[in-house]
TrEMBL record:
Zn(2+) binds at C227, C292, C293. It holds the Pfam family S-methyl_trans. This is Homocysteine S-methyltransferase. Transmembrane segments: none annotated. It comes from Exiguobacterium antarcticum. The keyword Magnesium does not apply. GO terms for molecular function: methyltransferase activity. The lineage of its organism: Bacteria, Bacillati, Bacillota, Bacilli, Bacillales. The keyword Methyltransferase applies. Its cofactor is Zn(2+).
Amino acid sequence: MSKNNNPVEQLLKEKPYLLLDGALATELERHGSNLEDPLWSARVLLEEPEQIHRVHTDYFKIGADCAITSSYQASVAGFSSRGIKEDEAIELMKQTVYLAQQARAETGQAASHALIAGSVGPYGAYLSDGSEYVGHYGVDDAQLEAFHRPRLEALIAAGADVLAFETIPSLQEAKVLFRLLEEFPEQSAWLAFSLRDATHISEGTPLSECIESLGEHPQMAAIGANCFPASIATDFITTLKQLTDVPIIVYPNSGEQYDPVSKTWSGEAVCTAFEDVAPEWYAAGARLIGGCCRTTPEQIERIQQKVTIG
């Protein structure tokens, strides 16, 4: 694949950094959707797709350069547990792209350049037990490939501009995903790990080893992390910048802690200060910046207002 087919690279030639969207699921909850379900935001896809369209529209209206689709928790296996057949599951996953595309088109010229990133959540998200923050699933490569392939095929067929491999806790899973991506040589993807700390991904593998294994992959649009405490973002970016020239992506969560058993959040939210620390992230080398769980369009808009490039 030629890197000229990488839409992130192309857009970064026009803009100093890309503003990602923020939380989807917690915005859906704020608008009244019930996500108490193993399918999480994919439940809303089944029952209230107009709410997903509404959230995408809200982010495009404040100037987001990218919408991440509602397919993070969507999978053939997950839908099957609800009695949904594979053909319908594939169509539902395609629908996540169509909803974002529709919101982009309806928002007008301000969003016309924006990218649609097809969300590919980790195997642990399907397990719905928080293992996307641990990474030791006890499954082999073949099982991971069989799980991920239908979603990749669906998102690409629906026209996602780029894929978002996100909250990936293990190097094994990251390698599997990029090996699958090679079956689609015109497609690119970003890789966002979940983190144990500023220098290790969730399973404990050093960032240096991850970059050594995947950092030069020609289909890598960006590399970084998501759904981690913003307090370690600057140190993480600084570490990563020393290891790679690939664009760095960060979209932390609010700083609160998620309990996968009770499905609740606790602790102090620090996302209201994102706009104060995001300029540090840019200065350290981040070129795709946004928010993950518990962040809002208003907070993402303030990032845009504060990260001004002279």
